[in-house]
Design goal:
There is one protein chain. The chain is of the alpha/beta class. It has a single domain, classed as CinA-like (Maf protein). The chain is 44% helix and 21% strand. A 5-stranded mixed sheet has the order 2-1-3-4-5, with helices on both faces. A hairpin with a 2-residue loop joins strand 4 and strand 5. The mean pLDDT is 95.
């Protein structure tokens, strides 16, 4: 099977549809993977790497109350990030990640947890991932999984 970033190109290239990303725990890896594909500038607008909660609030519009109530690593924050970056960039589709890539966690989610959100014409969907390898391996696994989730979401939206 082809990598998700190549499948995304096949789905979006030449359609006029645009994509953006908001990343926290993946630290730009999603953006990196997308931009390794020639021609990605045709459909990829860019990303916001919002590592600090203040960046999530100020750039992406994540409500402080959402972070306080559900935690920085949550379905609700991931969804707000995806919606925020889509609104900010004017993209048709977006993907967002927030998680704990290594030994840290909090009272809401343990280490090795990532929430992925995708947003587009059919609304927002969130997915919880778990991986317990090294920080570097977790980042790669979360980014690759997020792209697989995004690919499926785009396919479902385009086939309606």
């Amino acid at each position: 099977m082809q990598k998700a970033e190549i499948r995304i190109k096949k789905l979006l290239h030449g359609t006029g549809l645009k994509l953006s990303a908001a990343e926290s725990c993946t630290g730009g890896m999603i953006s990196h993977l997308i931009t390794t594909v020639p021609g990605s500038s045709n459909y990829y607008l860019g990303s916001v790497t919002s590592y600090d909660p203040r960046m999530k609030q100020e750039l992406l519009g994540v409500a402080a109350e959402t972070i306080e109530k559900f935690g920085i690593v949550s379905s609700q924050v991931a969804a707000s990030m995806a919606q925020g970056v889509r609104r900010l960039t004017g993209a048709d589709f977006s993907v967002a990640t927030t998680g704990w890539a290594d030994a840290y966690g909090d009272e809401h989610e343990p280490a090795g947890t990532c929430w992925v959100a995708v947003d587009g014409p059919e609304g927002t969907k969130t997915f919880r991932l778990s991986n317990h390898e090294s920080r570097k391996a977790n980042i790669k696994a979360f980014a690759s999984s997020a792209l697989e989730i995004l690919t499926t979401y785009i396919e479902q939206n385009l086939n309606q």
